[in-house]
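Final report, section 2: Outcomes. Of the targets proposed, P-loop containing nucleoside triphosphate hydrolase protein is the one most frequently requested by collaborating groups, and we therefore present its record in full.
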Amino acid sequence: MVLRPCSSALFTGQQVHLDTLKHYFSIRNGITPRRSFLIYGLGGMGKTEIALKFAEDVYSQYGYIFWVDATNEDTITASLKGISSIPDAKKADVDGTPEAVLYWITSL
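The predicted structure is given below as tokens.
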């Protein structure tokens, strides 16, 4: 399983972006129960650090937070296969294929 890296101890600022993420994901209703958010920008701008810090800040509020390394197709496949090894996925008989893992995630 691909473990989520820890955010940098030197992470500072970016509070406006963290607040935006927290607000966006806290609003849930029956029309849009599942939400996604795209963080984009040039390399080295802090996108990963913002995502890591957000995940650390809200971890206790969610049943699952999955870290998928999207560097390339192989790392995505490896990340999804790793997700299939967590106990709840095993209980659901997720077979480890990317499709099965994604199907299971959509059922959560």
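The mean pLDDT is 87.
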